[in-house]
Amino acid sequence: MWLGPEEVLVANALWVTERANPFFVLQRRRGHGRGGGLTGLLVGTLDVVLDSSARVAPYRILHQTQDSQVYWTVACGSSRKEITEHWEWLENNLLQTLSIFDSEEDITTFVKGKIHGIIAEENKNLQPQGDEDPGKFKEAELKMRKQFGMPEGEKLVNYYSCSYWKGRVPRQGWLYLTVNHLCFYSFLLGKEVSLVVQWVDVTGLEKNATLLFPESIRVDTRDQELFFSMFLNIGETFKLMEQLANLAMRQLLDNEGFLEDKAPPRPAQPHRNISALKRDLDARAKNEYYRAMFRLPRDERLDGHTSCTLWTPFNKLHIPGQMFISSNYICFASKEEDGCHLIIPLREVTIVEKADSSSVLPSPLSISTKNKMTFLFANLKDRDFLVEKIADFLLKTSSKQPGDNSAGRKASVMDPAPESSPAPQEAPEQPASPGSPCGGCQSSLAQEAPTASQGLLKLFRRNAPVEDLGAKGAKEKMKEELWNIHFSEYGRGVCMYRTAKTRDLVLKGIPEGLRGELWLLFSGAWNEMVTHPGYYSELVEKSTGRYSLATEEIERDLHRSMPEHPAFQNELGIAALRRVLTAYAFRNPTIGYCQAMNIVTSVLLLYGSEEEAFWLLVALCERMLPDYYNTRVVGALVDQGIFEELTRDFLPQLSEKMQDLGVIASISLSWFLTLFLSVMPFESAVVIVDCFFYEGIKVVLQLALAILDANMKKLLDCSDEGEAMTILGRYLDNVVNKQSVSPPIPHLHALLTSGDDPPEEVDIFDLLKVSYEKFSSLRADDIEQMRFKQRLKVIQSLEDTAKRSVVRAIPGDIGFSVEELEDLYMVFKAKHLASQYWGSSRPTAVRRDPSLPYLEQYRIDASQFQELFASLTPWACGAHTPVLAGRMFRLLDRNKDSLINFKEFVTGMSGMYHGDLTEKLKVLYKLHLPPALSPEEAESALEAAHYFTEDSSSEEALRQEEGEGAGSEDVQGKGGEEKGTSPPDYRHYLQMWAKEKEVQKETIKDFPKMNQEQFIELCKTLYNMFSEDSREQALYHAIATVASLLLRIGEVGKRFSAQPGRKSRDGAPGEDQPPAPDTPQDPAQELQPPAVGDPQARAGGDTQLGKAPQESQTTCPCPPTRWSARAPCSVRTWPTTRCWWAGRPAAPWPPAATGAPSTPTGASPSSRSWPPS
Fold first, then answer.
1. Where is the composition biased (Low complexity) (predicted)?
2. Helix residue ranges, H only, 270-328
């Protein structure tokens, strides 16, 4: 390629001059090609170790002048052909022009301008956005593609210099990280190391430091462990590897590939040698961190962040931290983890102004909100730019929401209220009990539209007012007062200052009157609900009456959702639960409905309206518990692995015992999926839900560790899993909430425990306190890091399970061993995944449906099958292989969806590899019949198909008429016999079902007849199969001889089947048969060459039997054969056809020893059939 002219030094030790003229020099890198010797080895080693781009260009062209000592690179090439084209262009277009100039300086200026113009012309349409990667990075990407054979679709993200430890010897080279692969290349003293690993095959990724491998990165796959070390910046490299591996796991989990962000925030000064993909990945990681920290919607993207201080009025301090700005939010996080968090939605902002600077408060910025709160930031580095940015976002926000967001929305627990009092919650009249006459009114009303505009707990409260509950009521009243004081000091609503004091209040318990409001705030569900007014109502309307597998499962589980609670013993609660679950299944069909969602949603409905419960469910399933509620509960399995790892770290004595008993796998899924709601009394479990919405999964893991720690002595004495489960179950049944003002609800799990004396009661608040005291060292960042490691293991384990399930589903008579099937499955899956990230004509989401059985999840199309067929088939046909692959694909694609699954693929491979001679012939025969053989593959296929269809259709019609007649008689007879008799018993239907399930083995008699064109295509395939064989000449002659004999035998059979006097199926002579000839013909005469050239024969063979058409001789256009130096063959060309050997370097057809096949008089040549009748 052409290069921008740069000064270079001519190092003769490293380059060899191959061509030269007065103005240009063509050089080859020493060591490239053959015969490099020791110098070539040393140069190649230096190229790899010192310069990643040197090996991209083993050839280069330099511009020089006679008196100047300066050389300029103008072109480089990876092959001699490429560099020669550039050299010839320079000689033909510039050499004569340059000889005119008198000044060498003018010559150099002219050459540089010409080369720059060529480069500009070439790059004019490459990147219209003007964000071209730096030249060095582009060279590295070219080297990566050339070295590892990657297509254009494979994008390089970044590359690093490092060492790969192969045995005990480090190999210095270059590590290339692409979107889908990890690649490494090293060349040291003639020894080359090339390594390619797909990210989807990575099972472990760890950064560690040992004596043997200092500061190394270990990459685990199913087959090997790879160690890389000696990085310049190991932290950056490992972080990028984590991102790419995580993207690959997401691809396996939910079929999401990496899509380059088309409009990411661009830095003002882009870094050199960093690709756009690297910047996009960094931006994606920052976005995920930003959304997780402040519980923001999934589509929120971070625009930027800056250091600043926040004035906190509750303690009169300036707290240092970071301000984060996105299109809809301004957020603040202090440097200390428990310092202060703040979220300001731009929809709430009314005024943004720059305050006066002072020595105490430099560069201040004031932001006021609708609820009359003012936030003061200071120490902003670029305040003017920040104000402009916020102003732009405010304009966009106001255009999106021209009116009040809450207009038209039903009364909610989150409606604005004065800061001095809690949010008003206007409770309607208390409904009658479920057994009252009004119960039916509520049921009919509940079926029309969302009617639960407040928590079901208020509608079905059976206890007395709080004032009449004595000590419990006083405690509840005190909690409410503490929260009101907190609201007055720290604010209320989304813009509340969230500090360590807020967490302490949550741990002490949220009052029932504020629970729904605070759940919405802490989970971030309130933001999504306000920005999507009316969304839930639309979903309910659209999903009403829709039937799917999810709705069927929902109906099945509705009455299992907290049946002990009175709210769900009534149609009002059940109808609300049905609407919320169905609406969510309609919103997110990928998840649809999963068990345990009904239990969690029923609790959400107790403390909020239907719409609020819906958005809380969205926050739970899509952000706070990612991948928990799907068909494979991957998220819960990941956190189960984290729990096992934490148990090893904090409770090492108990960990080994629990692993031996297998208890952790049994208990953790039920604990995590339902947030302890299914294993604890309701009053206690709801306190855990309070803490979960504020702290996330961290509190659930802490509590699980505290439960094991409290029962350690008993668990160590257990002898089996059942005993351990009983101990833990009884302990959880006796975790109580002594402060609850709700009446106790019987816990169904307690009915399954032993009848012995129950253990002493444990207060839930004491248990939470112990969990924070002993296990508070857990951090959210550490949990996310552990989630990444466990996700790799879990998803790869699920993929291995899928592989084993698919292999077991393959019939035993397929011929391949289990190991061979597993290897074929991995190749098949890799081809499917390659199509996902290297492009295909069909969206991959169509090809892979995670809801389907494992056997149907991975499927490939015709182009992918062609590549696999060419590399795996034992029937190599040279240039004819793609044609044969297309026929095999059409043969295997029985449902005509242009895709085949693994079972169909293995069936085709088995027939070619493990079938006996007859089975292989069957496969070969079927490959040349419809639908495998397409009509376009032969010139006369359409005409041949016409005759073939005409003959077969008449026979088929006759068979149908006979079958219908016999069937009607049979039905009439059976009808007469079965009148008045009882229907057959179940054994009759079992026998019918067994017969349907029996595999019907094909026999040769089941195959349709093959016409002439199809048989010719079969001969072509055989011809191509032996094109590279050592006995090629003998095999060609054998094919020609056998094919000629078979065609003649088929003609004889056709002739005898058309003889007069031959009876039809019903025994009567055929009415359509022609009259008998006057004299019988000798059968030996039937094998004589056909008479060719009669117009009637060419028109379709309407001549009468016994009248031979006139004979004519035509010359075949076959070239001289490779077998002999004879002239092109001269054969009798059949009517309506051509010589099928035309244009091929083959033997004369047919051989002179056998003669040409015969055509019976009166028989259409295109209707010749095989096998003979």
1. 416-444
2. 276-294
User: By residue range, what is the domain housing residue 553?
Assistant: 405-425+447-471+521-629
Q: Establish if 994 belongs to a structural domain.
A: no
> Residue 754 maps to which CATH number?
1.10.472.80
What does DSSP say about strands 2-8 and 15-20: parallel, antiparallel, or unpaired? Answer: unpaired
Q: Write out pLDDT tens, residues 301-322.
A: 999 999 999 999 999 999 999 9
Start-to-end CA distance of the chain, whole Å, equals: 66
Question: Do 33 and 146 belong together in one domain?
Answer: no
Write the CATH number for 390: 2.30.29.30
> Are 651 and 765 contained in the same domain?
yes
Around Cβ 261, how many Cβ atoms within 10 Å? 16
- The candidate with the shortest Cα–Cα distance to 1090, out of 1145, 1033, 1161, 1018, is 1161
* Residue 187: partners with Cβ closer than 8 Å, 6 or more residues away: 44, 45, 47, 48, 55, 173, 193
Last residue of one domain, picked from the residues 750, 785, 809: 809
Contact 229, 217 (CB under 8 A): yes
Rg of the Cα atoms in the chain: 40
Is there a contact between 68 and 59 (Cβ–Cβ < 8 Å)?
Answer: no
**In the block, which residue shows the tokens 């010409």?**
114
As a 3-state breakdown, the chain gives helix, strand, coil percent values, each rounded to 5, of 50, 15, 40
Long-range contacts from 401-410, C-beta under 8 angstroms, 24+ separation: 401/347, 401/531, 405/347, 405/530, 405/531, 405/533, 406/530, 406/533, 407/533, 408/533, 408/534, 409/533, 409/534, 410/453, 410/609, 410/611
Please check whether residues 652 and 619 belong to one and the same domain.
no
Q: Helices (DSSP H) in 810-878: which residue ranges?
A: 818-838, 844-847, 854-857, 862-872
945 shares a domain with 905: no
Q: Is residue 339 part of a domain?
A: yes
When divided into structural domains, the chain yields a total of 7
Strands 329-334 and 317-326: antiparallel
- Residue 233: name the closest of 225, 244, 241 by CA: 241
Q: Do 638 and 769 fall into the same domain?
A: yes
Say which residues have a Cβ less than 8 Å from residue 78's Cβ, sequence separation at least 6. Answer: 56, 57, 58, 59, 142, 146
Residue 6: beta bridge partners?
73
CB of 1109 closer than 8 Å to CB of 1136: no
In this prediction, residue 140 carries a pLDDT of 85
Half-sphere exposure of 429 (CA within 13 A, CB side): 5
Give the mean pLDDT of 335-361.
Answer: 89
CB 41 within 8 A of CB 31: yes
- The confidence score (pLDDT) of residue 1143 equals 40
Can you list the alpha helix ranges (DSSP code H) found in 979-1011? 986-997
Q: Is residue 1081 part of a domain?
A: no
Exposure string over 810-828, b if 16+ CB within 10 A, otherwise e: beeebbbeeebbbebbeeb
1027 and 1155 belong to one structural domain: yes
Within 8 A by CB and 6+ apart from 593, the residues are: 550, 551, 553, 554, 581, 584, 585
- Residue 979 domain-assigned? no
The 3-state secondary structure of 364-401 reads: CEEEEECCCCEEEEECCCCHHHHHHHHHHHHHHHHHHC
Among 70, 91, 122, identify where a domain stops. Answer: 122
Angle at 578 between CA 572 and CA 581, to 5 degrees: 140
CA atoms of 1173 and 1167, how far apart (whole Å): 13
**Residue 728, token pair as written in the block:** 């833990």
Taking Cα atoms as reference points, which of 137, 54, 230, 203 lies closest to residue 790? Answer: 203
Please name which of 317, 316, 333 lies closest in space to residue 325, comparing C-alpha atoms.
333
Q: In this structure, are residues 203 and 796 in contact, taking their beta carbons and an 8 Å threshold?
A: yes
**Of the spans 392-401, 789-798, 846-855, 972-981, which averages the highest pLDDT?**
789-798
CA distance 214 to 303: 38
Same domain, 89 and 157: no
Does residue 899 sit in the same domain as residue 942? no
Most confident of 4-13, 59-68, 532-541, 860-869: 532-541
